[in-house]
């Protein structure tokens, strides 16, 4: 696994740094996926031994990264990570990410549920698995509810949140504002959305007033 640089055209700059290489285990990398740390959840900034894919296949779906990467970690004996930028991700309007956001978010949720069940089977008491699904459901409601409202209601996503929620997840290492929104969403989803908007608004005002802090 290597570091990635997002670029929007071919005029870009890259900072050089001394290479650091380390070995990570599957559970640590799956945790990074669940907390959306770096590019842990992508398939495209990695090289694989072919045996990893003996029992794993890409499917005809929008979010193959979400559906596949955690399985490759579970199959791997070790993951070698380099902090060097060796993958350049060119973003453009015709990419998959530029396609229907509604369909993408629906597929994202379905793949996340599959991932949750898979991880629960191999790591039954892994609290970050519960936390990861809670954060995904919260973000779907906060950012994309208007786009997937009918799907959200039909599949009873909030009910799933309540089933998975436990105060034990607060033992996970997580910023206090994330812990608050996880609890608040359990109690009152609409209120959690209002509080989140107020919090983001205050952060933006603070940045404008103190840009160098």
Summarize this structure as a short list of keywords or feature phrases:
213 residues, single chain, mainly alpha, two-stranded antiparallel ribbon, two-stranded parallel sheet, 4 strands
* Quaternary organisation: single chain
Unreliable residue stretches:
none
Form type: globular
**Binned strand content:** 5-15%
Query: What helical percentage do the residues reach?
Result: 40-55%
The largest beta-sheet arranges its strands as: 1-4
Provide the structure class. Answer: mainly alpha
Q: How many E-type strands?
A: 4
The topology string of helices and strands comes to: EEHHEEHHHHH
Query: Can you give the mean pLDDT?
Result: 88
Main sheet overview: 2 strands, parallel
Number of helices: 7
Distance between the ends: 33 Å
The gyration radius over C-alpha positions equals 19 Å
Describe, in plain words, how this protein is organized in 3D.
The protein is mostly helical. The protein is 53% helix and 9% strand. It has seven helices and four strands; from the N terminus they run ββααββααααα. A two-stranded parallel sheet has the order 1-4. It has a two-stranded antiparallel sheet with strand order 2-3. The chain is globular and about 45 Å long. The two termini are 33 Å apart. The mean pLDDT is 88.
């Amino acid at each position: 696994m290597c570091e990635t640089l997002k670029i929007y055209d071919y005029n870009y700059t890259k900072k050089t740094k001394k290479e650091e290489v380390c070995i990570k285990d599957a559970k640590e990398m799956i945790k990074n996926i669940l907390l959306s740390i770096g590019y842990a959840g992508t398939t495209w900034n990695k090289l694989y031994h072919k045996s990893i894919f003996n029992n794993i296949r890409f499917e005809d779906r929008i979010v193959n990264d979400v559906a596949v990467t955690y399985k490759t970690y579970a199959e791997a004996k070790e993951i070698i990570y380099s902090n060097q930028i060796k993958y350049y991700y060119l973003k453009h309007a015709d990419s998959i990410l530029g396609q229907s956001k509604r369909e993408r978010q629906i597929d994202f949720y379905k793949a996340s549920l599959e991932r949750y069940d898979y991880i629960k089977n191999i790591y039954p008491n892994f609290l970050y698995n519960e936390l990861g699904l809670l954060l995904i459901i919260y973000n779907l409601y906060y950012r994309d509810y208007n786009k997937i409202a009918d799907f959200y209601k039909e599949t009873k996503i909030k009910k799933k949140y309540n089933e998975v929620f436990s105060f034990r997840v607060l033992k996970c290492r997580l910023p206090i504002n994330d812990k608050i929104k996880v609890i608040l969403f359990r109690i009152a989803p609409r209120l959690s959305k209002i509080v989140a908007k107020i919090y983001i608004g205050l952060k933006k005002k603070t940045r404008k007033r103190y840009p160098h802090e």
